[in-house]
Amino acid sequence: MARIVPSQIVALIDQNPPSGSATLSVGHGTVGILTAITRLIDELPAELLMISGADYINLVCSVESIRTSVAFWQLKGAGEIGNSGIRGKNVLVLIREVLAKCPDQAPSPATTELAFITDDDLQVSVRLDINTATSALHNGEWKAATVLAGAAAEAMLLWAIQKTPALASLPTKPKGTPEGWGLGDYIRISADLGLIENATAQQTALAKNFRNLVHAGRAQRLDEVCDRRTDLTALAAEELIARDLSA
């Protein structure tokens, strides 16, 4: 089943705009679109409905209002009926207003929590990478899953290193600032600082090698490709890092 996102429903409403009045006409010419809109709303992932209680109530009331009107029209059997709207607004207008506030991307509630990252935007971004990598694994998109899981691992390690006061006291570290280091540097420094366990460092080193297969030349030299094995390696690495940093 295709993944439905709010902007798709907004676009569908825009292609079939309601009249300027609060009354919505239900008849042979509109019932198909109205039924499709309510069905698509049912298929929206719950994590994308990032709206207030009042907006959620407006959405539910509008959807049920359409369903009731369609059911009544089907019983009536002919002609058209008018849906008088909600609080003086056309129900399609209300639905569009609510869905326009919703994102098309958000991490699933099942995605690993990253409470140790106190930058909200970064936390959401990394969780999105983890969520997308997991979805890519299930869809057989091996390279995408491997690369995104590796990117999430790198972002978590960089965040932890930047926030560790002990970094300044390390006797040896790469030149420049942490932002300019590579994943291999993050693994070694994180282990030296005790941010991650040795087993986590070893797992992440494997993931680093597989993530580099995104470069065609390296993949040819090593005669390696991204597959389920590389995906699971990279996803295991980011989960171990999240566990260690959370602790």
How would you sum up this structure, described in words?
The chain has helices at 6-15, 31-42, 53-76, 91-99, 120-138, 142-162, 183-192, 198-211, 216-222, 228-246, and strands spanning 24-26, 81-83. It is mainly alpha-helical and 247 residues long. The protein has two domains: 6-99, no CATH class; 120-246, Four Helix Bundle (Hemerythrin (Met), subunit A) (Up-down Bundle). It has a two-stranded antiparallel ribbon. The chain is elongated, with a radius of gyration of 25 Å.
The neighbouring-strand order within the major sheet is 1-2
Order of helices and strands: HEHHEHHHHHHH
Rg estimate, integer Å: 25 Å
Give the proportion of residues in helices. 55-70%
Summarize the structure.
The chain is built from ten helices and two strands, in the order H-E-H-H-E-H-H-H-H-H-H-H. With 247 residues, it is mostly helical. About 4% of the residues have low confidence.
Can you give keywords for this protein?
247 residues; Four Helix Bundle (Hemerythrin (Met), subunit A); 2 domains; two-stranded antiparallel ribbon; 10 helices
